[in-house]
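Tutorial handout. Part one gives the primary structure; part two gives the three-dimensional structure as tokens.
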Amino acid sequence: MSEDKVTATAAYTAFGLRAEAEKIAAGLHLVATPIGNLKDISFRALSTLAAADAVVAEDTRVTKTLLAHYGISTPLVAYHEHNAHVMRPHLIARLEAGAALALVSDAGTPLVSDPGFKLVAEALEKGIKVTSVPGPSAVLAALVVAGLPTDRFFFEGFLPHKGGPRRARLAELARIPGTLVFFESPKRVAETLDDAAAVLGPRDAAIARELTKLYESVRRGRLDQLAAALREEEPPRGEIVVLIAPPGVDAEATSEAELDAKLEEALAAHSLKDAASVVSASTGRPRREVYARAIKLAAERESETRE
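Part two.
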């Protein structure tokens, strides 16, 4: 049995009342925490955080605020991408010794764009029990208010920072038959929307910002419209989720003449490789086919120039 926790009864405070936390089993407990509004935490999450031998947090400063708000005194342990390789063996050793550890991210559900995956994978390999304490998720919170299809969606996380790799990745995602969901930095969101509009065409989209917080906002419109609007504004502040509608049902109905016209337009603004990716994404035609046609058109254009 773990001796990490003091003998005092584990408890938390909610609605001005002090409640005793239920005892939890040994193992790793993945606890979802609020993405902004502290009221979004569940009673089960509070009880788990209070009863754990330690709370393993991506940023202890963020989690300290949450614990203090609910009167929880459980010790905090930092676990993030910079110390994970050192801390993971220690955490696994504690779990094997019978500790009950609660893993949280800075906000939302653990393992979504944070370093918790390797800890969970290793715990499972060691036969350690892993339990989910579900709750807030920025991905789902954004999806349900975006006004875009929710029956299928694909969470990409963060796109590459640089334009070329970002456009290439968008082209790879273009034919996925579901709503695309991304996290993005306020500093790059305008560039990302520009690239998405160029690669994916005039799809419907939404920008969800500061969800559940005081200045929450959701902007909806076509990709090109949103991109144009953000180019004229100061970079937005806060946490941002970008959502893009699936390709249209008529994506593969492009005629050969329309394909050539789209390629000619794309070749005027992009390299041959990028032009093929852009047109493949906007038409739904196989990239290999579009690339072969782009090579032919580029060769014909070069031949005409020489003449």
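Part three, for discussion. The first strand starts at residue 11 and ends at 14. DSSP finds eleven helices and twelve strands in the chain.
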